[in-house]
Amino acid sequence: MAELISIEKEELVKAIDEIVAQKTEEVKNSLLSEMKNKLTAPQFFVKSETPEWMKRMADAVKAVYNRDEAKWRQLTTGEGWIPREFSEEVIKKLAYENVFRKFARVISTNFLAGSIPRMTGSATAFWVPEGSAGTQSTPTRDVVNFTVNKLMVVIPVTEELLSATHVDLVNLLVDIVAGAFAQKEREAMVNGTGSGQPRGIRAETWSNDIGWDASDIYGTLVKAYLAVDPQYRASSVWLVSNKALNILLSAKDTTGRPLLNYYLQEFPGTLFGRPVYEVPEIPENLGAGQDETEIYFGDFSNYIIIDYKGGAIEGSESAEAEFTKDLVLFKFKKRLDAKFAYFEPGVNVVRIRKVK
What we know:
Layout: H1 2-40, H2 52-65, H3 69-75, H4 84-97, H5 100-103, E1 105-109, E2 113-119, E3 141-147, E4 149-158, H6 159-162, H7 166-191, E5 210-211, H8 217-227, H9 230-233, E6 237-240, H10 242-250, E7 270-271, E8 274-278, E9 293-298, E10 303-308, E11 314-318, E12 327-340, E13 349-355
Parallel strand pairs: 1-10, 5-13, 6-8
Antiparallel strand pairs: 2-3, 4-12, 6-9, 7-8, 9-13, 10-12, 11-12
């Protein structure tokens, strides 16, 4: 009886093994068949089309280089040889490369000169008993005058550059134009005189400055933070040079923790909850020893950037220039102004001097 049961178990195990082997083979064959079908089936790829405006602009550049006047006239009928989309791409890149465009107020105008109204005194609210008349506020106002200034970059285009694809050629021009404009904008918005260029933040008459104390960096920064009225702190930012940023990165609070919080934010992060922006154009050679810099804190949304026609890029070309060198010159220009609409040191902005 025991031998019979043993034989039946062996036969059952054998039958199960055969079934498992059979199913395994079926699954393997099925997978191989599926893979073969995928590999041999026709593949379909979505072709990325070059935007029409990029084609037209690149072809216009090449037409100038090749002295093909007929082609040039065909491509530049209407809005000119610089499409609206090119200006939009430059403005996008400008907003990234010029940090002032991240926190200042940007305004578009269709006028080369004009004025923008501003309030110099706020309205006042009153508690009024039921049935009583309200009290009229008497806010004061004036205007901020502006004259847009011309910013220009002249780019030599070579035969080698024209061998690039439509996309590569136009993207390269966007990078060159935006990079050149961004650098000059930053320079003027920090150190500009206001004559033929924007009026920079350092051109204002500063007062109520905070003196730098290298032995108490934390205390100095707290003083600067508290020097700005509470109503402006929520919109305030820190502007630092490379030298000042290097100092802040190694500074610690009274408990030994780093002052800059850059773990969850874009570098260099925040200081007392407000963003820190590096501005390379802030001088680092100030003072008698030419080794001092400055730190600014405040609500710079009161610094306005006035873009003519939304920052539209104008262009012109010279097919004859540098003929012997196989170069064609392309000129790109935009117009803007920038200045403080409201500036009150110790109220909405503050400066820390003699930082080293």
